Q: What sequence folds into this?
């Protein structure tokens, strides 16, 4: 964020005062310092993105993503096509100069002027306007769908990034616990215990370190993907997001099917394409009807050189004209109507195919959400507590010599695996809520708002 103008003005005042009280020997240095400070103030780079919530991510993407801006500009361009289609054709103005004047009874004709306007058959312009309007509405819903898809990508990436954070945190804790065991195992080895226990512990620590390195690379890759979606000026390692495991909620999938049909912007876009195709079909039908051209002609006549007393001598004649084109190429018009009908049916079939795909995706997402909710309950309310208790018992047993290092390592690994599974379920549940919202275009608890309808 750039510094505001008030700060610049205050800096200007302070620097000006300092310059006035400096001696001449320091005047040049003071001016150079001022110019450098002003350059820093005016050209300071933007503050790096520091958001940590899903709302911060979505707001940044909404404002800065260039692909979304491209969709918005396509919609604005489509709006400008509507008045173009509704307008009349340009009038025609014609000037004819007679190189050799045509001698008439009233005098020689010097110039001829004609002004004409073509008027399309009734309904042609209105259907052209309707088609352009439906195309603009289709692009509006394409823009809304792009908003949802962008929000979907950002949200899925956000929760995946959050899972990586928890995986790194838990793996580090597990590594630190294993490191804390090293002095205990080394002491037992010095007291006559088997060295294999120490070797097995070091192997386990190395394996955990390898997992941490892999997770660090996954973090860098996921951060780069999010940076692209957020249109950040450079690829930076984003700070960890702020999120928590969602509470399990039940979603009635079958009742959302009608919501998908009514509010999904991709389906609404295809509906408008069907409307536009119907208008173009009507335009093709109206091509069988002629257009009319109305005009006025004016001829400039000089005074006659002979018989100057002829009545109406030198008067400029004028007249009106009516013309009509003859649509006689019926094969061409029949082909245009068949083409328009085929396009309409294509969009109708595309609509049904897309609806079937979205309905199947909704069913799959609801099933995945139910499974994630089940795993959240299983790990969070049952297995994690048992694993923590088992680890504590095994640690006490090992310290008292009743169990070996392998049992303790297995207990540590089991707890880590269950913790990772819990946060994997939490991330999956949050992600599937986002997927369901983007399909139904309805706010789901813990996600974001629906997109606006076309007005």
A:
């Amino acid at each position: 964020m750039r510094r505001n103008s008030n700060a610049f003005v205050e800096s200007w005042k302070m620097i000006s005062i300092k310059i006035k009280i400096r001696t001449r020997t320091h005047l040049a240095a003071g001016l150079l310092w001022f110019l450098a400070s002003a350059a820093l103030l005016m050209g300071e780079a933007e503050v790096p993105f520091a958001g940590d919530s899903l709302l911060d991510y979505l707001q940044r993407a909404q404002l800065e993503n260039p692909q979304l801006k491209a969709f918005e500009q396509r919609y604005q361009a489509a709006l400008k096509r509507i008045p173009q289609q509704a307008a009349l054709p340009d009038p025609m103005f014609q000037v004819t100069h007679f190189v050799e004047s045509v001698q008439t009874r009233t005098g020689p004709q010097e110039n001829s002027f004609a002004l004409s306007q073509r008027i399309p058959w009734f309904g042609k312009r209105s259907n052209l306007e309707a088609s352009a309007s439906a195309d603009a509405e289709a692009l509006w819903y394409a823009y809304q769908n792009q908003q949802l898809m962008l929000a979907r990508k950002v949200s899925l990436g956000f929760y995946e990034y959050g899972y990586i954070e928890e995986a790194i945190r838990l793996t580090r804790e597990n590594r630190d616990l294993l490191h804390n065991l090293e002095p205990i195992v080394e002491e037992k080895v010095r007291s006559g215990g088997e060295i294999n226990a120490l070797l097995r512990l070091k192997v386990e620590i190395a394996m955990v370190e390898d997992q941490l390195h892999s997770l660090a690379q996954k973090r860098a890759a996921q951060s780069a993907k999010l940076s692209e979606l957020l249109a950040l000026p450079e690829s930076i390692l984003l700070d960890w997001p702020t999120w928590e495991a969602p509470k399990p909620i039940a979603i009635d999938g079958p009742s959302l099917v009608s919501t998908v049909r009514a509010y999904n912007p991709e389906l609404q876009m295809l509906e408008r394409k069907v409307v536009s195709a119907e208008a173009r079909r009507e335009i093709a039908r109206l091509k069988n009807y002629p257009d009319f051209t109305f005009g006025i002609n004016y001829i400039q006549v000089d005074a006659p050189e002979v018989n100057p007393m002829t009545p109406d001598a030198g008067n400029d004649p004028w007249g009106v004209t009516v013309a009509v084109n003859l649509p006689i190429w019926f094969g061409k018009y029949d082909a245009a109507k068949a083409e328009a009908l085929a396009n309409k049916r294509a969009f109708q079939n595309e609509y049904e195919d897309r609806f079937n795909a979205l309905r199947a995706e909704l069913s799959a997402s609801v099933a995945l959400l139910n499974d994630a909710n089940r795993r959240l309950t299983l790990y969070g309310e049952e297995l994690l507590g048992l694993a923590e208790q088992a680890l504590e018992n095994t640690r006490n047993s090992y310290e008292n010599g009743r169990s070996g290092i392998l049992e303790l390592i297995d207990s540590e690994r089991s707890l880590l695996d269950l913790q990772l599974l819990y946060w994997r379920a939490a991330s999956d549940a949050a992600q599937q809520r986002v997927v369901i919202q983007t399909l139904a275009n309805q706010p789901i608890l813990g996600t974001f708002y629906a997109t606006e309808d076309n007005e």
Notes: The chain has two domains: 5-42, 54-87+120-286+335-440. The first helix runs from residue 5 to 21.
